[in-house]
Structure prediction request, 358 residues.
Amino acid sequence: MINLNDFNYDGRQEGFVEETYSFLGSENLPDNFHQKYITIWMSRECNSKCKHCYQKGDPRGRGWDYAKADAVTDLFLKDGYIVHPIVNEWLPHYWDFLKIKKKCHSTEITTNGILITSRYKEFFPLLHENNISDIKFTIFPKECHNYITGRKRENVIQAIKLSLKDGFRVTLNYVVMKSTLHTIPSFVEEAIKLGVHEIYFMYYFCIDPKNNMYNQVLSPQDIKCFWKYWQMLNNSEYTQKIKFSKMAAFGLNPYNEDHYRKASRCKRFCLAGRWEYLDFLYMDPEGKIYPCNMVSGKKYQIGEIFDDDGIWNYRFIDNNWQDKLKGFNRSMCAGRMETNRIWHETQTSIKSDTSTSK
Prediction:
């Protein structure tokens, strides 16, 4: 029998997910196992405007003030949640929010690197002071980084080198889309030479077919190709120098048995929402609560925060969101199902339009 006291949260979101799957994939999972976790996105404000950004990061985007961020965080901490507070980019007027991350025992930040190259002498001491040990950089291959982000790739490379030199554990967020799928091997080689510790493969999702980046969404065949690369990387002696991790949205590893596959067989693969073994929630900067960031939008809203006469509170909404995903049973990722549904509908529409025009 698994001991509930053995559950270890290391302050990283991916660390929580991996630890949770190690429990959910066990045949001896205790009936009273239940974790509570919420990601709170506190600001859309950014110093860049990337074409792929599902969070609508914008230089004009608004963020919470410190008092609100601190109060809402305390609200969920008090109710037993592990809180993962995030801002879109760590601009100087959000540096006080690092105190909130410290209170939550959250040990990582994500950045595009712009700020680090110009303000690292001020920023790094604050990170150390607030127990931030991990920095995650979102970076694309040489072939498309500048086009997608509108930024010079050399700047983020410099920020990565500065962070490594100062002793931070560095992870590279690699967004897998059609134009980045086949550059995975060369990117990994570059990352190893840089000396980074981990590559986190992010599943590119876009639920708006009108978005000019929608044509970058992975097809089922592309997913199969990703897994071939994954298998190749994990079986290479050269790549043992670096850790690889991935979003659950890629589905199950077709080559190996692991905790994820075991959890799927028990219908415990999708973590989203409030259910028997987990509260796994996502809050957007507007204060709306969803099952996860890939399953958001009005029809999936399950809660919200509100100002109750000067005091922040939250409530859940009676919304059986699972019924809106045909065939959902937690054996696969809800976000992946939603993305696939829209992709297939779009392909059908394209074929219909093509047929009509002939």
In short: The CA atoms of residues 75 and 178 lie 41 Å apart. Residues 334-357 form the longest helix (24 residues). The mean pLDDT is 91. The first strand starts at residue 35 and ends at 41.
